[in-house]
Phosphoribosylformylglycinamidine cyclo-ligase (Streptomyces aidingensis), 377 residues
Amino acid sequence: MSDNAAPRAAADAPDAAGAAGASYAAAGVDIEAGDTAVELMKKWVAGAQRPESVGGLGGFAGLFDASALRGYTRPLLASATDGVGTKVAVAQRMDVHDTIGRDLVAMVVDDLVVCGAEPLFMTDYICVGKVHPERVAAIVKGIAEGCVLAGCALVGGETAEHPGLLGPDEYDVAGAGTGVVEADRLLGAERVRAGDVVIGMASSGLHSNGYSLVRHVLLERMGWSLERRVPELGRTLGEELLEPTRIYSLDCLALVRATEVHAFAHITGGGLAANLARVVPDGLTARLDRASWTPAPVFSLVGAAGRVARPELEKTLNMGVGMVAVVPGEAVEAALTTLAGREVDAWVLGTVEERTEHRGDAAAAVVLHGDHPVPGA
């Protein structure tokens, strides 16, 4: 497994005139701090492995034993990469860094599992303005914990120090993952048929999308602090905004093993309609009933505080639905039972029907109707 800190440099030395020469440290890159960060993260990385993981921390590349794929007839490798957007700004302001890594893993592995792929391994990239070893280790701790929840290995990573590009307390994270699926078990729009049922899986909150809108409304326009306790949320605003993204990969894989599944859709940027439309084939429409679920209070809070119109909310935020499964009608009971057994709040969102409109855009592929129930009514 690779996890390198900033590149190594020669020690400071006086120049020909006897004055101290320029150095990497003087330019703002702290090699020793990077090495300390690697030492601190080792125990977390060690716990995020699979039997196929090869080697240890400190190599130039992460290794994974591909002989495990011999059991497949025609293995297809799936790859995904992502970040967590401006949610990192909330983590930085709160000085809480051990959850953002779980968000990163979720954004990657939940994209992989959509096609039916089992996530195998991940690599991460952490770019910082200044290496604070404990902070970097906390970020990696979250990534490692996320990998355990996703059933994949953390096989490599890079920590890069970019003084002058980022402030001393600023950072960003990105990750890439690889999974595998048997070719004849590949899920997607090709399997979806009229009569299929759409099942929603509850999100844990905002997840990792739409934070530019949320921060603009609640922090800038409303002027709220992250320490503000919000009665509707039952906790502070910062605690709500840092709630980790739910990782659905093992739940989705369990669902595939338990019953027939035609497609999944990970509800991220673009919202429910735009993401589900990606797995609805031409000629069909998914009709979803808003009355089938009540979004968590944070969504109505953003809408009311910012006077955000419903179409804008629905195309920006997940509105309480983090993952969607499309299954044949006869598989609904088994699917809901399986998800309930895994403590996933799931329900029937709607159905897939023959399209009556001849348009070929996303608006015709997914139609939301009705209104969400009024809490407490």
Q: What stands out?
A: Residues 189-369 form a domain with the Phosphoribosyl-aminoimidazole Synthetase; Chain A, domain 2 fold (CATH 3.90.650.10). The first strand starts at residue 2 and ends at 4. The chain has a mean pLDDT of 88. The chain has two domains: 31-57+72-182, 189-369.
